[in-house]
Amino acid sequence: MESNWKPLNRPRRLRQTQALRDLNREVRLNPSDLIAPLFVTLGDNPPEPVASMPGVFRLSLADLLGECRELAGLGICGVALFPVIPLGLKTPNGSEALNPKGFILQVIRAVKDAVPELVVFTDIALDPYTTHGHDGVLNSQGTDVDNDSTVEILRQQAVLHASAGADFVAPSDMMDGRVKAIRLALDHAGFVNTGILAYSAKFASAYYGPFREAVGSAQAAGTRKLDKRTYQLDPANPRAAIVDALLDEQEGADALMVKPAGPYLDILASLRRETRLPLAAYQVSGEYAQIHAAARAGWLDLEATRNESLLAIKRAGADWILTYFAHEMALALRQH
Ligand code: PBG
Questions:
Q1: What pLDDT is attached to residue 4?
Q2: Fewest CB atoms less than 10 Å from the CB: which of 149, 210, 228, 229?
Q3: How many whole angstroms from 173 Cα to the centroid of ligand 1?
Q4: Domains present along the chain, CATH in parentheses
Q5: What is the enclosing helix (H) or strand (E) of 38?
Q6: With the CA atoms of 285, 287, 292 and 293 taken in that order, what torsion angle do they form, in degrees rounded to the nearest 10?
């Protein structure tokens, strides 16, 4: 190289000082982007830690309400509720999901009563309620989840959640046709303003392991490696993900979701171009556990990796981010 060589372009000029970097920031996280998934359990025990998810607890209803108040105070707009159902209430067909006095219905009512401004998202699927840990009921041979009889149950579950005050029901089961069936059932029951956040591009992922421990679907089944490949998407199939998501849009979903988030940023970015609906991404339990595990080993910086992982999800096109970091991320954003 000649000694008088100079670059023609100097993009580094825009990165010289913090003020310049702030001016040039293209994507910013806000507390209002975040939705906090919360685990709620019967009884009034103190918070039970989830071993594979440091900082995440199964909360009694009283503690859950306290947490919801804090989250709202930090500017978080929504919570996604996941009930931990005792083994004794689980059955092969998940009948507790349709108990009109079921625990989750009391929880929804209590949250809407205590913190009405929070948007309450509830999970529509049977896995907390089934002995086998699958999201639906099995066929008569017990070899697979039966689509249509599962959808029939899910639509009743959605109406129960709406009648308890859920703002959005979020079917996470991946059965065919469930969005339309749920929309019709909600409308028929008069819940025209209850929204549907469809887990549209939900992949059969190894990253759900810690969640299955947290809600005990793993415990009931005796393994965290539940095989959900006949209903959840193949991680190898980006086009199939768009097909499923656009069907959910046609069937009346109000918002679409990609899950997991970090390993599926390509799906998020391409779905962003295919739909004008709000797009959610779920940074799942295994993504959270991975960051914590590396931080514990001293291999990654927890806060910096957390911030970067969430920023990347927003950058790829997510409007709403479900993340177990919601509380601490909102706190950190407030302190800046
Ligand atoms: C099941 C459900 C799962 C998650 C949310 N709802 C796991 C599964 O499909 O087995 C995973 C969330 C996470 O890993 O954080 N309806």
A1: 87
A2: 229
A3: 9
A4: 30-335 (3.20.20.70)
A5: strand 34-41
A6: 100
User: In Å, what is the CA distance from 323 to each residue of 12, 56, 280, 293, 309?
Assistant: 33, 11, 11, 16, 10
DSSP 16: S
DSSP 109-171: HHHHHH-TTSEEEEEESSTTTBTT--SS-B-TTSSSB-HHHHHHHHHHHHHHHHHHT-SEEEE
The β-bridge partners of 283 are 323
Q: What residue's CA is closest to ligand 1, atom 6?
A: 172
Residues near 141 by beta carbon (within 8 Å), at least 6 away in sequence: none
Q: What is the pLDDT of residue 72?
A: 98
Q: Give residue-wise pLDDT tens across range 17-27.
A: 999 999 999 99
- Name the residue of 50, 52, 127 whose CB sits within 8 Å of the most ligand 1 atoms, as the mutation to test its pocket: 127
Which token pair is 312? 């990347």
**pLDDT for res 45:** 95
| CA neighbor of 157 nearest in space, from 83, 100, 88 | 100
What are the residue ranges in the chain where pLDDT is below 70?
1-2, 218-225, 336
Report how far residue 75's alpha carbon sits from residue 335's, in angstroms, rounded to the nearest whole number: 13
C-alpha torsion angle, residues 239, 245, 251, 256 (rounded to 10): -170
pLDDT at residue 83 in the model: 97
Ligand 1 centroid to 80 CA: how many Å? 12
Give the closest residue to 271 by CA, choosing from 201, 199, 168, 169: 201
Helical residues (DSSP H) of the chain, grouped into ranges = 18-23, 61-73, 103-114, 147-164, 178-188, 209-215, 217-221, 238-250, 265-274, 285-296, 302-315, 326-334
Residue type, 57: F
Q: Could you tell me if 141 and 227 are in contact, meaning their C-beta atoms sit under 8 angstroms apart?
A: no
Q: Whose CA is nearest to atom 2 of ligand 1?
A: 172
State the pLDDT at residue 15: 98
